[in-house]
Automatic annotation (TrEMBL):
Positions of region (Disordered): 350-369
Kinesin motor domain residues: 173-491
Subcellular location: Cytoplasm, Cytoskeleton
Key word Phosphoprotein present: no
Positions bound to ATP: G243, Q244, T245, G246, S247, G248, K249, T250
Transmembrane segments: 47-75
Stated name of the protein: Kinesin-like protein
UniProt feature, compositional bias: Polar residues: 350-360
GO function terms (MF aspect): ATP binding; microtubule binding; microtubule motor activity
UniProt record, GO biological process: microtubule-based movement
InterPro entries with a match to the protein in the record: Kinesin-like_fam, Kinesin_motor_CS, Kinesin_motor_dom, Kinesin_motor_dom_sf, P-loop_NTPase
GO cellular component, one term: microtubule
Gene: LOC111104252
Assigned keywords, A-Z: ATP-binding, Coiled coil, Cytoplasm, Cytoskeleton, Membrane, Microtubule, Motor protein, Nucleotide-binding, Transmembrane, Transmembrane helix
């Protein structure tokens, strides 16, 4: 009960005896004190509630909001940095392609050639996006509009082809990229987007693009997908992986030995997906393509058809229709028509099994053989006015043998077999050196160079990925591989690649 001052006064006035009055006044005073204490207690409960419950909850909420905002800010910055990096990589790659270093461009000014290349890339990408948009429209349009749209898509496609091929020609017909293997051990290499240096030495190697050890399969493929597109435009393409045993050639070309996923698959599955996706798109515009695949192995200077298993002993010869001109054919080779990505990859996987069934084990065997996966293409189209057009091309994807014994010691070894195995790589380097010096290379000295003749010179576009390992124990081979890559990247052919008719 709460007693007001008036109530207290009226109560004391009612008591007549002074002693009792004093006592009741004291009692009332005590009651008042009790009341004050009660009020204080509830106030302190309220304060405690605020200090121990409300304040911590508020603090936690503020911290959570700050974390969320921080994460959002970091993610946004990361996206921006990625875009900036991509821009920088493109710029650096462009400069490298043009044989220039950043330092050479005065005060950071971009030369006219660089601007032209950047515009070419931009133009091509815009046209490609426009073509894809029209294909999407075409897929949903009624028959009435089809002819008109089909014509537009065909025109855009021709424009894209022209621009893409101009772009690829500007990049050069022999391009070299470098990839560092993912390793946790001691790292002897330091890299930028376009250079590799060996730590503790002055040695620095420049390539069109360097993929550091953190690089993903997707990133590597992004850099070559436009080149793959020109295969359907009627060009011969050859992509090969070079490097010592265990440096990641098979990983780059095919993917890891087990559990290949969309993220880890290498160049071969990605190229097949891209080729058949593009075929599907161009079908809407009237193009039809026929593709035939083959898969062989060059082991000990002998050709083996991987589709026939490792026990079949058949003789295979490389033939050229007109002297040494035209498309190389191999006798007794099974070529299978492939109609979609699954067909092509099943064919590839099935044949790969023969490669891995060697009695010496996969690495030992694969390090001593070159695996060559070839896809031959013929395409035809009839435009709305009934005008026909055809094209043909070859896509050659090569996982080369390990390069670690490519030296003089190998040529004097008593092991005849090893000598033969290394011969092809030696000849490959000779051919590339001759091309660099603008001399006439001799292709016939090894089956590898003879078979790849059309992909190394003249009417072709070649991309080599030099694979290196960053560990101390591989230093010597890594250095040699980088030297080899440097030599090759200097190869400039006078012949501009021509489209096959
Ligand atoms: N970038 C990478 N990321 C993850 N694993 C890798 C990478 N590069 C190589 N590896 C792994 O390292 C091992 C050796 O690589 P790989 O078989 O590709 O070498 P190689 O150069 O083809 O050797 P060989 O000449 O003997 O065939 C494999 O287990 C492969 O999965």
């Amino acid at each position: 009960m709460v007693l007001g001052p008036d109530t207290r006064q009226s109560i004391t006035e009612l008591v007549e005896d002074p002693v009792e009055r004093d006592l009741s006044a004291d009692g009332l005073h005590l009651l008042q004190t009790l009341q004050t204490l009660r009020t204080l207690r509830s106030v302190s409960y309220l304060c405690l509630f605020r200090v121990f419950i409300v304040v911590p909850v508020l603090v936690v909420l503020i911290v959570l909001v700050a974390i969320v905002l921080g994460v959002l800010f970091w993610w946004k910055r990361r996206q921006n940095t990625k875009q900036d990096d991509k821009g920088k990589i493109d710029e650096e790659a462009t400069l490298n392609l043009l044989g220039k270093s950043k330092e050479n461009t005065k005060n950071g000014e971009v030369s006219e050639e660089n601007t032209a290349m950047a515009e070419l890339i931009k133009d091509y990408k815009e046209k490609l996006a426009e073509m894809s948009r029209q294909i999407e429209i075409l897929k949903t349009q009624s028959e009435m509009d089809n002819q008109e749209l089909k014509k537009k898509v065909l025109e855009k496609n021709e424009e894209c082809k022209r621009l893409n091929n101009k772009l690829q020609e500007a990049k050069g017909n022999i391009r070299v990229l470098c990839r560092i293997k993912l390793c946790e051990e001691n790292d002897i290499l330091s890299t930028t987007k376009t250079t590799v240096s060996i730590k503790g030495t002055e040695k620095r190697y420049t390539f069109e693009r360097v993929f550091d050890k953190e690089s993903t399969q997707r990133e590597v493929y992004e850099d070559i997908k436009e080149l793959v597109r020109s295969f359907l435009d009627g060009y011969n393409l050859c992509i090969f992986a070079y490097g010592q045993t265990g440096s990641g050639k098979t990983y780059t070309m095919e993917g890891p030995p087990d559990n290949i996923s969309e993220d880890t698959e290498g160049i071969i599955p990605r190229a097949m997906k891209q080729v058949f996706q593009t075929i599907k798109e161009l079908k809407v515009a009237g193009w039809t393509y026929k593709l035939r695949a083959s898969y062989i192995e060059l082991y000990n200077e002998e050709i083996r058809d991987l589709t026939k298993g490792s026990n079949v002993q058949e003789k295979h010869e490389i033939k050229y229709p007109r002297g040494e001109q035209g498309k190389a054919t191999i006798t007794n080779i099974k070529e299978e028509e492939v109609e979609n990505t699954d067909d092509a990859l099943n064919f590839y996987k099935q044949a790969s099994k023969s490669r891995t069934s060697g009695k010496t084990g996969r690495n030992e065997r694969s390090s001593r053989s070159h695996a060559i996966f070839r896809v031959e293409m013929t395409g035809r189209v009839e435009n709305v006015e009934g005008v026909k057009n055809t094209c043909s091309g070859t896509l050659t994807l090569v996982d080369l043998a390990g390069s670690e014994k490519l030296d003089d010691a190998a040529s004097v070894t008593t092991n005849q077999e090893t000598k033969k195995i290394n011969l092809s790589l030696m000849e490959l380097s000779k051919v590339l050196r001759a091309l660099r010096k603008k001399e006439n290379p001799i292709y016939r000295n090894s089956k590898l160079t003879f078979l790849l003749k059309n992909s190394l010179g003249g009417n072709s576009k070649t991309l080599m990925i030099v694979n290196v390992s960053p560990t101390e124990d591989c230093k010597r081979e890594t250095e040699r591989t980088l030297e080899f890559g440097k030599e090759v990247s200097k190869v400039v052919l006078e012949n501009v690649p021509r489209k096959n008719k």
